[in-house]
Amino acid sequence: MQDDHSTNGGEEPPSDHRLQALKEFHSAGRGVWGDVSNADWNDWHWQLKHRITGVEQLQRLLPTLTPEEFAGAKLANHKLALAITPYFFNLIDPADEHCPIRLQVIPKAAEMRTAPWELNDPCGEDAHSPVPGLVHRYPDRVLFLVTDRCAAYCRYCTRSRLVSNASGYDFHPEFDRQIAYIRQHQEIRDVLLSGGDPLLLSDEKLEALLGRLRAIPHVEFLRLGSRIPTFLPQRITPALCATLKKFHPLFLSIHSNHPRELTTEVREALGRLADAGIPLGNQSVLLKHVNDDATVMKALVQKLLTCRVKPYYLYQCDLISGSAHLRTSVSKGLEIMEQLRGHTTGYAVPQYVIDAPGGGGKVPINPEYVLCRNAGRVLIRNYEGRIFEYPEAADGTPLFKAPKEIEERELA
Ligand SMILES: *Cc1c(COP(=O)(O)O)cnc(C)c1O
After folding, report:
1. 277 closest CA partner among 248, 236, 257, 309
2. How far is ligand 1, taken at its centre, from the CA of residue 287, in Å?
3. 348-368: per-residue pLDDT in tens?
4. Which terminus of the chain, N or C, has fewer Cβ atoms within 10 Å?
5. What is the C-alpha separation between 329 and 309, in angstroms, rounded?
6. Ligand 1 atom, smallest distance to 128 CA
Protein backbone atom coordinates (compact mmCIF):
# COMPACT_ATOMS: atom_id res chain seq x y z
CA MET A 1 0.00 0.00 0.00
CA GLN A 2 1.56 3.26 -1.06
CA ASP A 3 -0.63 6.20 -0.33
CA ASP A 4 -0.57 9.91 0.28
CA HIS A 5 1.40 9.92 3.47
CA SER A 6 4.81 8.89 4.61
CA THR A 7 4.27 5.45 6.10
CA ASN A 8 7.02 4.10 3.91
CA GLY A 9 9.15 2.61 6.65
CA GLY A 10 11.47 5.56 6.61
CA GLU A 11 13.78 3.69 4.30
CA GLU A 12 12.70 4.94 0.89
CA PRO A 13 13.96 8.27 -0.40
CA PRO A 14 11.42 11.05 0.16
CA SER A 15 9.92 12.86 -2.81
CA ASP A 16 11.61 16.00 -4.17
CA HIS A 17 9.51 18.58 -2.35
CA ARG A 18 9.84 16.68 0.90
CA LEU A 19 13.57 16.32 0.36
CA GLN A 20 13.88 20.07 0.05
CA ALA A 21 11.84 20.64 3.20
CA LEU A 22 13.87 18.06 5.10
CA LYS A 23 17.11 19.61 3.92
CA GLU A 24 16.07 23.04 5.12
CA PHE A 25 14.98 21.51 8.39
CA HIS A 26 18.11 19.51 9.03
CA SER A 27 20.47 22.21 7.82
CA ALA A 28 19.57 23.88 11.10
CA GLY A 29 21.03 20.80 12.84
CA ARG A 30 18.86 20.82 15.90
CA GLY A 31 16.24 23.05 14.36
CA VAL A 32 15.72 26.06 16.62
CA TRP A 33 18.01 24.47 19.16
CA GLY A 34 21.00 24.92 16.84
CA ASP A 35 22.88 27.01 19.38
CA VAL A 36 22.48 24.57 22.24
CA SER A 37 25.75 23.01 23.39
CA ASN A 38 26.27 19.27 23.06
CA ALA A 39 26.52 19.04 26.82
CA ASP A 40 23.07 20.58 27.26
CA TRP A 41 21.46 18.67 24.40
CA ASN A 42 22.73 15.37 25.75
CA ASP A 43 21.61 16.17 29.29
CA TRP A 44 18.23 14.59 30.02
CA HIS A 45 17.37 17.28 32.54
CA TRP A 46 17.92 19.94 29.86
CA GLN A 47 15.66 17.98 27.50
CA LEU A 48 12.90 17.74 30.11
CA LYS A 49 13.18 21.39 31.05
CA HIS A 50 12.86 22.47 27.42
CA ARG A 51 9.90 20.33 26.45
CA ILE A 52 7.29 21.80 24.15
CA THR A 53 4.22 22.18 26.32
CA GLY A 54 2.28 25.19 25.06
CA VAL A 55 0.28 25.88 21.92
CA GLU A 56 2.03 29.18 21.08
CA GLN A 57 5.42 27.56 21.44
CA LEU A 58 4.28 24.65 19.29
CA GLN A 59 3.02 26.94 16.56
CA ARG A 60 6.25 28.90 16.56
CA LEU A 61 8.31 25.73 16.20
CA LEU A 62 6.01 24.08 13.71
CA PRO A 63 4.60 26.71 11.36
CA THR A 64 2.78 24.01 9.41
CA LEU A 65 0.53 23.33 12.42
CA THR A 66 -2.97 22.66 11.07
CA PRO A 67 -6.12 24.25 12.55
CA GLU A 68 -7.11 20.77 13.79
CA GLU A 69 -3.77 20.45 15.61
CA PHE A 70 -3.91 24.02 16.90
CA ALA A 71 -7.34 23.37 18.42
CA GLY A 72 -6.14 20.05 19.86
CA ALA A 73 -3.06 21.60 21.43
CA LYS A 74 -5.14 24.40 22.91
CA LEU A 75 -7.45 21.94 24.63
CA ALA A 76 -4.85 19.31 25.56
CA ASN A 77 -4.18 20.56 29.06
CA HIS A 78 -7.77 19.83 30.05
CA LYS A 79 -7.34 16.15 29.30
CA LEU A 80 -3.88 14.81 28.50
CA ALA A 81 -1.14 17.42 28.62
CA LEU A 82 0.96 18.34 25.63
CA ALA A 83 4.64 17.60 26.19
CA ILE A 84 7.33 16.71 23.64
CA THR A 85 11.07 16.56 24.25
CA PRO A 86 13.13 18.71 21.84
CA TYR A 87 14.96 15.54 20.81
CA PHE A 88 11.76 13.76 19.76
CA PHE A 89 10.26 16.91 18.28
CA ASN A 90 13.22 17.15 15.93
CA LEU A 91 12.21 13.82 14.36
CA ILE A 92 9.01 15.41 13.04
CA ASP A 93 9.00 16.14 9.32
CA PRO A 94 7.44 19.63 9.28
CA ALA A 95 6.51 19.29 5.61
CA ASP A 96 4.36 16.23 6.25
CA GLU A 97 1.02 16.64 7.95
CA HIS A 98 0.82 12.85 8.27
CA CYS A 99 4.33 12.39 9.64
CA PRO A 100 4.19 9.23 11.78
CA ILE A 101 6.16 10.93 14.57
CA ARG A 102 3.90 13.96 14.53
CA LEU A 103 0.71 11.89 14.71
CA GLN A 104 1.85 10.24 17.94
CA VAL A 105 2.56 13.36 20.00
CA ILE A 106 0.77 16.38 18.52
CA PRO A 107 -2.81 16.67 19.78
CA LYS A 108 -5.79 16.99 17.46
CA ALA A 109 -9.23 18.39 18.13
CA ALA A 110 -10.59 14.88 17.46
CA GLU A 111 -9.26 13.89 20.91
CA MET A 112 -12.14 15.81 22.43
CA ARG A 113 -14.73 13.62 20.68
CA THR A 114 -15.67 10.47 22.53
CA ALA A 115 -17.26 7.63 20.55
CA PRO A 116 -20.07 5.74 22.37
CA TRP A 117 -17.96 2.64 23.08
CA GLU A 118 -14.91 4.59 24.23
CA LEU A 119 -13.95 4.74 27.91
CA ASN A 120 -11.59 6.61 30.23
CA ASP A 121 -10.41 3.31 31.71
CA PRO A 122 -10.72 1.02 28.68
CA CYS A 123 -8.90 -1.95 30.23
CA GLY A 124 -10.85 -1.88 33.48
CA GLU A 125 -7.72 -1.29 35.54
CA ASP A 126 -9.42 0.64 38.34
CA ALA A 127 -11.67 -2.34 39.09
CA HIS A 128 -8.59 -4.55 39.55
CA SER A 129 -6.75 -2.17 41.83
CA PRO A 130 -6.50 -3.53 45.38
CA VAL A 131 -4.54 -0.45 46.54
CA PRO A 132 -4.02 2.80 44.63
CA GLY A 133 -1.20 2.57 42.11
CA LEU A 134 -1.31 -1.20 41.78
CA VAL A 135 -3.23 -3.31 39.25
CA HIS A 136 -3.54 -7.01 40.08
CA ARG A 137 -5.34 -8.62 37.18
CA TYR A 138 -3.36 -11.80 36.54
CA PRO A 139 -2.71 -14.45 39.20
CA ASP A 140 1.07 -14.17 39.58
CA ARG A 141 2.00 -10.62 38.58
CA VAL A 142 1.16 -6.99 39.24
CA LEU A 143 1.41 -3.70 37.43
CA PHE A 144 2.92 -1.05 39.70
CA LEU A 145 2.26 2.55 38.65
CA VAL A 146 5.24 4.39 40.11
CA THR A 147 4.74 7.86 38.66
CA ASP A 148 2.07 9.80 36.79
CA ARG A 149 4.52 11.61 34.51
CA CYS A 150 6.11 10.78 31.17
CA ALA A 151 8.86 12.43 29.16
CA ALA A 152 6.32 13.08 26.40
CA TYR A 153 2.65 12.15 26.05
CA CYS A 154 1.35 9.71 23.45
CA ARG A 155 -1.97 11.01 22.19
CA TYR A 156 -3.55 7.54 22.41
CA CYS A 157 -2.42 6.93 26.00
CA THR A 158 -4.44 4.15 27.59
CA ARG A 159 -3.79 5.70 31.01
CA SER A 160 -4.59 9.31 30.10
CA ARG A 161 -6.98 9.40 33.07
CA LEU A 162 -3.99 9.04 35.40
CA VAL A 163 -1.02 10.68 33.76
CA SER A 164 0.18 14.23 33.08
CA ASN A 165 -1.81 15.76 35.94
CA ALA A 166 -4.32 17.17 33.45
CA SER A 167 -7.34 15.14 34.61
CA GLY A 168 -7.14 15.84 38.32
CA TYR A 169 -5.92 12.38 39.30
CA ASP A 170 -4.44 12.43 42.76
CA PHE A 171 -1.16 10.57 42.58
CA HIS A 172 0.63 9.49 45.75
CA PRO A 173 4.34 9.15 45.36
CA GLU A 174 4.91 7.02 48.48
CA PHE A 175 5.03 3.33 47.75
CA ASP A 176 4.37 1.86 51.20
CA ARG A 177 0.87 0.52 50.54
CA GLN A 178 1.78 -1.05 47.20
CA ILE A 179 4.90 -2.69 48.60
CA ALA A 180 2.99 -3.96 51.65
CA TYR A 181 0.41 -5.54 49.32
CA ILE A 182 3.10 -7.24 47.24
CA ARG A 183 4.80 -8.48 50.41
CA GLN A 184 1.54 -9.91 51.73
CA HIS A 185 0.69 -11.70 48.49
CA GLN A 186 3.08 -14.56 48.03
CA GLU A 187 1.57 -15.48 44.69
CA ILE A 188 3.13 -12.34 43.14
CA ARG A 189 6.37 -13.44 41.52
CA ASP A 190 6.57 -10.74 38.82
CA VAL A 191 6.35 -6.97 39.31
CA LEU A 192 6.02 -4.68 36.31
CA LEU A 193 6.94 -1.06 37.01
CA SER A 194 5.12 1.34 34.77
CA GLY A 195 3.18 4.58 35.12
CA GLY A 196 3.73 7.13 33.78
CA ASP A 197 7.32 6.36 32.99
CA PRO A 198 9.40 4.72 35.75
CA LEU A 199 12.65 5.90 34.19
CA LEU A 200 11.70 9.48 35.06
CA LEU A 201 12.53 8.62 38.67
CA SER A 202 16.04 9.56 39.70
CA ASP A 203 18.66 6.80 39.86
CA GLU A 204 18.50 7.03 43.67
CA LYS A 205 14.72 6.63 43.83
CA LEU A 206 14.81 3.73 41.36
CA GLU A 207 17.56 2.05 43.31
CA ALA A 208 15.61 2.38 46.57
CA LEU A 209 12.38 1.11 45.01
CA LEU A 210 13.96 -1.82 43.17
CA GLY A 211 15.87 -2.67 46.33
CA ARG A 212 12.67 -2.83 48.38
CA LEU A 213 11.07 -5.09 45.79
CA ARG A 214 14.15 -7.33 45.53
CA ALA A 215 14.06 -7.76 49.30
CA ILE A 216 10.71 -9.57 48.99
CA PRO A 217 11.62 -13.26 48.68
CA HIS A 218 8.73 -14.31 46.41
CA VAL A 219 9.36 -11.53 43.86
CA GLU A 220 11.58 -13.38 41.43
CA PHE A 221 11.20 -11.24 38.32
CA LEU A 222 11.28 -7.46 37.80
CA ARG A 223 10.52 -5.50 34.70
CA LEU A 224 10.01 -1.94 33.59
CA GLY A 225 7.80 -0.54 30.87
CA SER A 226 9.23 2.71 29.52
CA ARG A 227 9.12 4.93 26.49
CA ILE A 228 12.12 6.92 27.71
CA PRO A 229 14.55 5.06 25.39
CA THR A 230 12.70 6.53 22.37
CA PHE A 231 11.45 9.86 23.82
CA LEU A 232 14.57 10.72 25.79
CA PRO A 233 17.52 8.42 25.00
CA GLN A 234 19.76 10.87 26.90
CA ARG A 235 18.27 9.46 30.12
CA ILE A 236 19.92 6.08 29.49
CA THR A 237 23.19 7.05 31.15
CA PRO A 238 25.94 4.62 32.15
CA ALA A 239 24.99 5.36 35.78
CA LEU A 240 21.37 4.37 35.18
CA CYS A 241 22.45 1.13 33.48
CA ALA A 242 24.78 0.37 36.41
CA THR A 243 21.87 0.91 38.82
CA LEU A 244 19.45 -1.33 36.91
CA LYS A 245 22.09 -4.00 36.56
CA LYS A 246 22.09 -4.58 40.31
CA PHE A 247 18.58 -6.00 40.25
CA HIS A 248 18.72 -8.86 37.78
CA PRO A 249 16.74 -10.68 36.56
CA LEU A 250 15.29 -7.42 35.26
CA PHE A 251 13.72 -6.97 31.83
CA LEU A 252 12.72 -3.75 30.08
CA SER A 253 9.93 -3.23 27.57
CA ILE A 254 10.33 -0.18 25.39
CA HIS A 255 7.62 1.40 23.24
CA SER A 256 8.26 2.27 19.62
CA ASN A 257 5.85 2.36 16.72
CA HIS A 258 7.76 3.43 13.64
CA PRO A 259 11.24 2.68 12.33
CA ARG A 260 12.09 6.39 12.24
CA GLU A 261 12.07 6.40 16.04
CA LEU A 262 15.09 4.11 16.07
CA THR A 263 17.72 6.79 15.59
CA THR A 264 21.45 6.52 16.24
CA GLU A 265 20.89 7.98 19.72
CA VAL A 266 18.22 5.38 20.49
CA ARG A 267 20.31 2.54 19.10
CA GLU A 268 23.21 3.57 21.34
CA ALA A 269 20.97 3.90 24.40
CA LEU A 270 19.53 0.45 23.76
CA GLY A 271 23.03 -0.91 23.31
CA ARG A 272 23.99 0.39 26.76
CA LEU A 273 20.96 -1.31 28.31
CA ALA A 274 21.64 -4.57 26.47
CA ASP A 275 25.30 -4.43 27.53
CA ALA A 276 24.07 -4.15 31.14
CA GLY A 277 22.48 -7.57 30.57
CA ILE A 278 18.92 -6.27 30.41
CA PRO A 279 16.76 -8.29 28.00
CA LEU A 280 14.82 -5.80 25.87
CA GLY A 281 11.34 -6.16 24.39
CA ASN A 282 9.24 -3.72 22.41
CA GLN A 283 5.57 -2.93 22.65
CA SER A 284 3.90 -1.23 19.70
CA VAL A 285 0.41 0.08 19.32
CA LEU A 286 -1.24 -0.38 15.96
CA LEU A 287 -2.01 3.18 14.82
CA LYS A 288 -3.69 4.51 11.72
CA HIS A 289 -1.28 6.24 9.32
CA VAL A 290 1.61 5.47 11.68
CA ASN A 291 2.22 1.76 11.34
CA ASP A 292 -0.93 0.17 9.89
CA ASP A 293 1.05 -1.02 6.92
CA ALA A 294 2.93 -4.31 6.62
CA THR A 295 5.98 -2.68 4.98
CA VAL A 296 6.35 -0.19 7.84
CA MET A 297 5.77 -2.84 10.49
CA LYS A 298 8.29 -5.18 8.93
CA ALA A 299 10.88 -2.39 8.75
CA LEU A 300 10.19 -1.61 12.42
CA VAL A 301 10.49 -5.15 13.76
CA GLN A 302 13.59 -5.91 11.73
CA LYS A 303 15.24 -2.67 12.83
CA LEU A 304 14.34 -3.50 16.45
CA LEU A 305 16.29 -6.77 16.18
CA THR A 306 19.33 -4.86 14.95
CA CYS A 307 18.93 -2.69 18.08
CA ARG A 308 18.93 -5.92 20.15
CA VAL A 309 15.24 -5.60 21.00
CA LYS A 310 12.73 -8.44 20.63
CA PRO A 311 9.31 -7.26 19.40
CA TYR A 312 7.07 -8.43 22.26
CA TYR A 313 3.49 -7.19 21.81
CA LEU A 314 1.59 -5.44 19.07
CA TYR A 315 -1.48 -3.92 20.71
CA GLN A 316 -4.76 -3.27 19.04
CA CYS A 317 -5.36 0.36 20.08
CA ASP A 318 -7.42 0.47 23.28
CA LEU A 319 -10.85 2.08 23.19
CA ILE A 320 -9.56 5.10 25.05
CA SER A 321 -11.80 8.12 24.70
CA GLY A 322 -10.79 10.43 21.88
CA SER A 323 -8.67 7.88 19.99
CA ALA A 324 -10.98 6.95 17.10
CA HIS A 325 -8.91 8.94 14.60
CA LEU A 326 -5.85 6.83 15.46
CA ARG A 327 -7.46 3.40 15.54
CA THR A 328 -7.46 0.90 12.76
CA SER A 329 -9.30 -2.40 12.31
CA VAL A 330 -8.49 -5.81 13.76
CA SER A 331 -8.58 -7.19 10.22
CA LYS A 332 -5.78 -4.76 9.33
CA GLY A 333 -3.80 -6.04 12.31
CA LEU A 334 -4.35 -9.65 11.27
CA GLU A 335 -3.31 -8.84 7.71
CA ILE A 336 -0.06 -7.34 9.01
CA MET A 337 0.60 -10.37 11.22
CA GLU A 338 0.09 -12.67 8.22
CA GLN A 339 2.70 -10.69 6.35
CA LEU A 340 5.22 -11.04 9.17
CA ARG A 341 4.96 -14.69 10.22
CA GLY A 342 7.09 -16.82 7.90
CA HIS A 343 8.14 -13.79 5.87
CA THR A 344 10.68 -12.59 8.40
CA THR A 345 12.74 -13.85 11.35
CA GLY A 346 10.59 -15.54 13.97
CA TYR A 347 12.23 -13.39 16.68
CA ALA A 348 10.94 -10.31 14.85
CA VAL A 349 7.28 -11.36 15.05
CA PRO A 350 5.39 -9.82 18.01
CA GLN A 351 2.25 -11.28 19.54
CA TYR A 352 -0.78 -9.29 18.42
CA VAL A 353 -3.16 -8.74 21.35
CA ILE A 354 -6.35 -6.98 22.30
CA ASP A 355 -6.47 -5.83 25.91
CA ALA A 356 -10.08 -6.88 26.40
CA PRO A 357 -12.36 -3.92 27.10
CA GLY A 358 -13.64 -3.96 30.67
CA GLY A 359 -10.74 -5.83 32.22
CA GLY A 360 -10.35 -9.22 30.56
CA GLY A 361 -6.63 -8.80 30.11
CA LYS A 362 -4.54 -9.35 27.01
CA VAL A 363 -6.02 -11.78 24.52
CA PRO A 364 -3.81 -13.11 21.69
CA ILE A 365 -5.23 -12.55 18.23
CA ASN A 366 -3.79 -14.73 15.48
CA PRO A 367 -4.44 -15.36 11.84
CA GLU A 368 -6.05 -18.78 11.41
CA TYR A 369 -3.49 -21.43 10.52
CA VAL A 370 -5.52 -24.46 11.69
CA LEU A 371 -8.11 -25.02 8.99
CA CYS A 372 -9.87 -27.91 10.66
CA ARG A 373 -9.23 -30.40 13.41
CA ASN A 374 -11.05 -33.64 14.09
CA ALA A 375 -10.39 -36.99 15.73
CA GLY A 376 -8.19 -38.19 12.89
CA ARG A 377 -6.28 -35.19 11.64
CA VAL A 378 -5.35 -31.55 11.80
CA LEU A 379 -5.41 -29.55 8.60
CA ILE A 380 -3.02 -26.63 8.64
CA ARG A 381 -1.87 -24.01 6.21
CA ASN A 382 1.53 -22.36 6.05
CA TYR A 383 2.50 -18.73 5.42
CA GLU A 384 2.36 -19.31 1.66
CA GLY A 385 -1.15 -20.70 1.83
CA ARG A 386 -0.10 -24.30 1.17
CA ILE A 387 -2.17 -26.86 3.04
CA PHE A 388 -0.83 -29.79 5.05
CA GLU A 389 -2.30 -32.65 7.00
CA TYR A 390 -0.97 -33.77 10.36
CA PRO A 391 -2.50 -37.13 11.31
CA GLU A 392 -3.27 -37.97 14.92
CA ALA A 393 -5.55 -40.42 16.68
CA ALA A 394 -8.40 -39.27 18.90
CA ASP A 395 -6.33 -39.91 22.04
CA GLY A 396 -3.38 -38.00 20.64
CA THR A 397 -1.23 -41.03 19.80
CA PRO A 398 0.39 -40.63 16.41
CA LEU A 399 -1.07 -42.55 13.50
CA PHE A 400 1.40 -44.39 11.33
CA LYS A 401 0.45 -42.51 8.27
CA ALA A 402 2.79 -40.22 6.40
CA PRO A 403 1.99 -36.53 6.89
CA LYS A 404 1.30 -34.99 3.53
CA GLU A 405 0.69 -31.82 1.67
CA ILE A 406 -2.76 -31.55 0.23
CA GLU A 407 -3.66 -29.92 -3.05
CA GLU A 408 -6.46 -27.44 -2.65
CA ARG A 409 -8.64 -29.32 -5.16
CA GLU A 410 -8.50 -32.48 -3.00
CA LEU A 411 -10.25 -30.63 -0.21
CA ALA A 412 -13.34 -29.89 -2.22
C1 LIG B 1 0.13 -6.15 30.49
C2 LIG B 1 -0.10 -6.34 31.90
C3 LIG B 1 0.69 -7.21 32.66
C4 LIG B 1 1.82 -8.01 32.05
O5 LIG B 1 1.33 -8.92 31.12
P6 LIG B 1 2.34 -9.93 30.39
O7 LIG B 1 1.49 -10.63 29.37
O8 LIG B 1 2.86 -10.86 31.45
O9 LIG B 1 3.42 -9.12 29.79
C10 LIG B 1 0.42 -7.35 33.99
N11 LIG B 1 -0.60 -6.69 34.57
C12 LIG B 1 -1.40 -5.86 33.87
C13 LIG B 1 -2.52 -5.18 34.56
C14 LIG B 1 -1.16 -5.65 32.52
O15 LIG B 1 -1.94 -4.80 31.82
Report:
1. 248
2. 20
3. 999 999 999 989 999 999 999
4. C
5. 26
6. 13
